[in-house]
Amino acid sequence: MPGPLLQSYLFFNGNTQEAIDFYCKAIGATVEMVLKFKDSPDPLPPDMLAPGYEDKVMHAAIHIGDQLLMMSDGCEPGQAFAGFSLSLSVKTPEEVDRLFANLSEGGKVTMPLGKTFWSPRFGMLVDRFGVGWMVGI
Q: Which pLDDT value is given to residue 46?
């Protein structure tokens, strides 16, 4: 019997749709589904959402390669990412270079691409949404 399934679920600070669009363009993610709070099949509890969050993303799922990444705007502004990075493994140095450049657009490189003892091409960055990424072969 297989063990539990671990999946990442990221809470963005009110800009999940922008992140989805960016990841589709930057790394070829594909959208499985997007559900906005206003489209919830069940009524939301009163005062659950910050004003203006009705049009924000309640739940989204995108595919990056064969992995699923789930996302939401959460229920209120002010959330931040800390203490983790997403690791993106690819097959060629050219693909590392391309995806690293795309993800770092508007973000910050924290470890420039280079050779390491574990990889011929590896680098780290924080994207424009504050999500940490490790990209390598």
A: 84
**What does the alpha-carbon distance between residue 120 and residue 137 come to, in Å, rounded to a whole number?**
7
Distance CA 129, CA 135 (A): 17
Element (H, E) at 132: strand 132-136
Does the pTM surpass 0.85? The reply is: yes
- Note whether 22 and 128 are within 8 A (CB): yes
Counts of helices then strands in the chain (DSSP H, E): 2, 8
Rounded to an integer, what distance in angstroms lies between the CA atom of residue 15 and that of residue 1?
38
Span 83-99, average pLDDT:
97
Cα–Cα distance measured from residue 60 to residue 66, given in angstroms and rounded to the nearest whole number: 16
